[in-house]
């Protein structure tokens, strides 16, 4: 092997090991700092919805409400974003003329360049007030579906935050889906068309089965982004006085809870927030690991 090849191989391997080491160090730091705080917690860390760090030596904090809001707002974003992203990806890759397709793809990709704080300001000042009549209409479903139960009458709710998050993760899912749809083997497409399939039938029989793993992995990457979003969620969601399972009220995610209190956090209180950060770290790690596993199952996509 030539010297240049050996050097490049060593640098590549070293870079990979550095990333693994960095993740390991972050995990170790979170565990070392979080475990004593969880052990000293006067409430149940996993099931309590209380977050009271005002009394030194008697901290009561739990992640139940943070975990619920983080998961439900992310799932809402996924339910909205994934179907729209798949439709856009199919339109760009198999329906639109090349000139129009490139323009649509450019606009969708441009959404990814908009800072989170801009989405948050837009959601807070424009979108939430405009959607208030829609939220009032959903209140009528509260008796049947507890998620839509009238909780506070506040327009700055999990429902609105989930829609804004859906717009934020749309470019990620669309880009991955479009890429995998365009990689569908031409032989598969021509075979379906030769059998007399319409364009939609060809997409249903050849494109969608081939791209299922790619769409799933793109959705998982979008979910990872939604789980960790901070500023937009912090600006849009108001902090409720009591916990409720309804999405028609405000709330705090792991990231927004830490960001909200960061300015007033003391050294004694910091381990409690690190413990919450550890749970968020585990969540995002599981999501990304699942995405990697799904992609690896589809060797043609890899």
Written account of the structure:
The chain is mostly helical and 302 residues long. It has a single domain, classed as MetI-like fold (Orthogonal Bundle). 71% of the residues lie in helices and 1% in strands. The protein has eleven helices and two strands; from the N terminus they run H-E-E-H-H-H-H-H-H-H-H-H-H. It has helices spanning 3-40, 64-95, 98-111, 116-130, 132-139, 158-182, 186-194, 199-228, 231-236, 254-261, 270-297; strands at 51-52, 60-61. The chain has a two-stranded antiparallel sheet with strand order 1-2. Strand 1 and strand 2 (60-61) form a beta hairpin. Helix 8 (199-228) runs antiparallel to helix 11 (270-297). The protein is globular and about 70 Å long. The model has no long low-confidence stretch (mean pLDDT 86).
Whole-number tally of structural domains: 1
CATH superfamily: MetI-like
Write down how many β-strands occur, each being a DSSP E stretch of 2 or more residues: 2
Binned, the helix content reads over 70%
CATH architecture: Orthogonal Bundle
Order of helices and strands: HEEHHHHHHHHHH
Shape: globular
Q: Give the biggest sheet.
A: 2 strands, antiparallel
- Backbone CA Rg: 23 Å
The total of helices stands at 11
